[in-house]
Amino acid sequence: MAVFTPLTETQVERFLERFAIGTLTTLEGVPSGTENSTFFVTTDQGRFVLTLFEQGESDELPFFVALLDYLDEHRLPVAGPVHDRDGVALQELAERPALLFPRLPGRHPESPTLAQCRELGDALGRMHKVSQRFEGQRPNPRDLHWLASAQHKVMSYLSEADQRLMGDEIDAYQGIFGDASHLPQGAIHGDLFRDNTLFDGDRLGGIIDFYNGCTGDLLFDLAIVVNDWTSTADGNFDDARYTALLGAYQARRPLTETEQSLWPVMLRMTALRYWLSRLLVVYVDPPAHDLTPKDPSQYRHMLLKRLEHGAPPLPSASPSPSHTL
Fold it and tell me: Which CDD domains is this protein grouped with (predicted)?
């Protein structure tokens, strides 16, 4: 269940009067999702996605709107929010902040093909290249400072071995990264898992759900993607996916020497980031709605694999898909 605030057709019909997108023909609640209420809205002029924001800081929503507008203007595969007749995107509906988006084509890939990995790597490389010029600012809420402070909330739930593992890793990150301002910065997605993309066959239909978006290390964003997109069920890398995604990415934005040297550690840090955040959901801050938390052990196991095996060599840049710009 992901419609936490039901809407009537009458409510949505009145809401749509603010926009020049036609009149409502169908309204459908979307059952997937974990935090916000989502609806598919079809009018006589097109298909849209309506999101009601159920939690989080509403004063951060203008950042997300500005970021999506910026990426859309630069022809990235994102859904720029629909603006009303007065040029305003951020609305209110049912006493909730609301945004309306064009509905992008495709489905979430469960087991990405090599072509899909290349597509995603190419799009992320393009996004990171242009996002370095985005003027908006929102600090990364899951950066190294957060890891260092949040670890203490879960220590009592861990075995002694896992307490040492987590504490030693975070100490190592602080020693290695320290002042990470020397890493290339820009606007990042912050949570670009497979289920935050849509593919029509092997073609990327769009990147969605930017609500973990922020400004920070581009390498942090890339490591999140690679850990999810190119890992096998046992936590190791699928070498072909790894090469396809990173080769396409580097064709758009080659990693600096510093990024290359810190790459294996960043893969470890982002694995620990999800181990810790999932532990917090299970033991400290359960979801507000009746949802099943994700298994923290997946990313604990991945972290151990990264410590044991490191990272494969970074591939050289490979040609970008011919249809992208």
Answer: HomoserineK_II (cd05153)
Name 29's bridge partners. 39
Written as six digits, the tokens of 117 are 């990995």
The pLDDT, as a whole number, for residue 145 is 94
Total number of residues shown for the chain: 325
User: Angle at the Cα of 220 (from 306 to 102), degrees rounded to 5?
Assistant: 120
Would you kindly state where each structural domain of the chain is located, as residue ranges? 9-102, 114-309
CATH topology of domain 9-102: Phosphorylase Kinase; domain 1 (3.30.200)
Q: What angle do CA 71, 112, 28 make, to 5 degrees?
A: 65
Give counts: helices (H), strands (E), the chain. 9, 9
* Cα-to-chain-centroid distance, residue 161: 30
- Dist CA 71 CA 296 (whole Å): 32
Exposed, middle or buried by CB within 10 Å (0-12, 13-18, 19+), for 99? Answer: buried
- Cα(304)–Cα(233) distance, integer angstroms: 14
Structure tokens given for 275: 């181990």
User: Which residues of the chain carry a pLDDT beneath 70?
Assistant: 1-2, 32-34, 56-57, 179-181, 288-291, 319-325
Query: What is the chain's alpha carbon radius of gyration, rounded to the nearest angstrom?
Result: 20
The highest-level CATH class for domain 114-309 is alpha beta
Distance CA 242, CA 237 (A): 7
Q: Which amino acid is at 53?
A: F
Q: What string of H, E and C letters represents the secondary structure of 17-34? A: CCCCCCCEEEEEECCCCC
Per-residue pLDDT reduced to its tens digit, 263-273: 999 999 999 99
Residue with tokens 């996605």: 49
What is the pTM assigned to this prediction?
Answer: 0.94
- Kindly report, residue by residue over 11-45, the tens digit of the pLDDT: 999 999 999 999 999 999 988 666 789 999 999 99
